[in-house]
Amino acid sequence: MGLYIRLAWRNLLRNKKRSSVTALGITLGIGFCITTLAIMDGLSHDLITGTTQGQVGHIQVHEQDYLAKRQLQQTIENNSQVVAELRELSSVKAAAARLYSFGYLSKGNKSIGVSLLGVEPEHERQVTSLAEQIIDGSFLSQPTPWPKGQALSEEQLALDEQLTEQAIANAFAELDGLDTTSSELQSHTNELIDTLAPLPFSLPNVILGVKLAKNLQANVGDEITLLFETAQGAQQSLDLQVAGISRQGTDLIDRTRMIFHIQDLQKLLQLPNQSHEIAISTIDLNKVDLAQQVISDVLAASYPKLSVQTWSQLRPDILALIQSNQALMGTLVFIIFLIAGVGVMNAMLVSVMERRKELSLLKALGLKGPNVVWLVTIETLVLTFVASIAGLVMGVVLGSYLQKYGWDISQFGEFSLAGVGMTSALKAKLTLNNLFIPVIVMFVIALLAALYPAFSAARLLPAQGMRAS
Amino acid sequence: MIKLNQINKIFSDKHQSFHCLKDLNLEVKQGEFTVIAGPSGSGKSTLLNIIGLLDKPSSGSYEFDGQNVAKLNNNQLADIRREKIGFVFQAYNLMPVLTALENTEMIMEFCNVDKKVRRQRAMETLEAVGLGEFKNRFPAQLSGGQQQRVAVARAIAAQPLLVVADEPTANLDSHSTESLLDLMQSLNQELGVTFLFSSHDPRVIDRAHRVVHLQDGQIVKDVCTNNNDQQVAV
Ligand SMILES: Nc1ncnc2c1ncn2[C@@H]1O[C@H](COP(=O)(O)OP(=O)(O)O)[C@@H](O)[C@H]1O
Ligand SMILES: [Mg+2]
């Protein structure tokens, strides 16, 4: 063994130029692969955290048909109990309920369609970075003080019936061309509505997406008016106040998003103690499937109509993006290794050809075919070993630089991949796998590349090289 | 120790074939110091290759050290070569990347001889061939004669039964030729190692105890002299 390594090492040193060119190929291959893998992992990591912290969370709970139809009525009932139960679980770090709807927002003579999002500000902070996206004003805190609506009394119900009949009669009368304007009917009706769904004591605070605010020319502190529909289908309008402006990074969201305190939106839509979605942050994202199982099991008993999904089930596009990204990088790495492998094979072939006489001598002196295969293979392994160490150093240096300082991609513009706003510096992520997989793969490839030269060396006849001519 | 019976060697390729050794019979005993003499192209190397188990005869039987070696496969032949035969070739004898000492040690290392034992034996052998002080030189740093001495040292250090030397002095000047032959002869006498070598140089042939004359692949004369005196011509 010692002799083989000595022979291998000295043979490599014998043609320093060829050996170092081949080694350089291996070194660059490994160094580049480590860096590439680290960037890839960094990108995947950014995408996943961008997705989970941006909006999705690790896990979400919905009414079972909500994701397919997204109708206002498909809510999680008993929201506060469900959320409280979820927060009890040891695998759950935080849980935040949300309510969604649509409306029409106007200020002055401008009107824009908006999507409404109701959140629990303190819990949302622990699940996503929504609160950190505020670029002007402040995030929401307390719900707006709002008088409780009351159920109608017997007399009021009778009055309601009477008013309805009168309204129908008036409508027919109007058709007949009679003047039926009745201020009394209007004021009675308003009284009833006030009892059922009274106005808040102050203007509810909302957050506007940055592009929405710009298009409306709305600033923090401005009053705006929202036209919306309650869960019962009644059209209503309400004045609101802009408390903050947020930038999420995705054009569509920044153009249409409007955020409420969930309790305010529940009042508006008349969906008390209901939500459309509960976003959950778990203790360990790597064990999200386990947490999903636990949550499903817990909810299944008391709330059979709820379903539980992980981030990757909710955003299969992100998962697909990560996977195609990995496939692309994998192909790149494979090509690099193939080139390095061809380099190794070529170098070893030339080296074997040059040393035909010596190898024949060794066979004449009693080395067998397998010994010669081993001799050439060890030479390749020694070369790969030395070059791998250099490649590891290169990969670690480059990778940790990119891990610390990132790769500034802001020069290419604001980045948003599949609706996930990316930070402008792409940070690499060095892991043990990133370091050792390229080295191991390189060794396998070098071994394969050594096979042909080694076997052609082993086939040399012992007598062939001995002829004087 | 060596018994060749009706050995034929025919080299053939697609276009032609060449009958190199013809019905050759030869017996060599333990301890001989024998030269295969003959003009260039007479088949000396071919015969030594067969005797040294580097090549196989086309037909005929060969018994080496009491064993019929005609039927052995390449790996078995390699084992016998490594364990029992030492080689000195005309050129390309040494591994260029190993020192004189390492070259001398090499075969013992392949035979897994204990490191201390082989190191000592290699050193003694190297000193015996007069190259003790050159042990750390690489072949390129030695003269042609010195290289052949290292080759002889390597051949005998592993204590073989037989040393086969194919024109070992062909590339040497007369002085180096003399001292190499002195060395081989003394090793033959002191250690009893059988030496079988080839040459077409009369000065070398004169030193042998037995001269086998080869011509066109046939033995034309086989003379025992037992005479070390160079002055007497055969
Ligand atoms: N591998 C071979 N293929 C074909 N012919 C060969 C081969 N080896 C030797 N010969 C021929 O056999 C003859 C004897 O060669 P060789 O044994 O080398 O002679 P010597 O060593 O006496 O000079 C030569 O004519 C040579 O051309
Ligand atoms: Mg010859």
From TrEMBL, chain A:
Domain (MacB-like periplasmic core) ranges: 19-141
Q: Where would I find the ABC3 transporter permease C-terminal domain in this sequence? A: 332-459
Native organism taxonomy: Bacteria, Pseudomonadati, Pseudomonadota, Gammaproteobacteria, Alteromonadales
Q: Which UniProt keywords apply?
A: Cell membrane, Membrane, Transmembrane, Transmembrane helix
Q: Where in the cell is it found?
A: Cell membrane
Where primarily located? membrane
According to its record, what are the GO cellular component terms?
A: plasma membrane protein complex
* Family statement drawn from the similarity comment of this UniProt entry: Belongs to the ABC-4 integral membrane protein family. LolC/E subfamily.
Q: Where are the transmembrane segments?
A: 21-40, 327-352, 372-398, 435-461
Source organism of this protein record: Pseudoalteromonas caenipelagi
This protein's name: ABC transporter permease
GO BP: lipoprotein localization to outer membrane
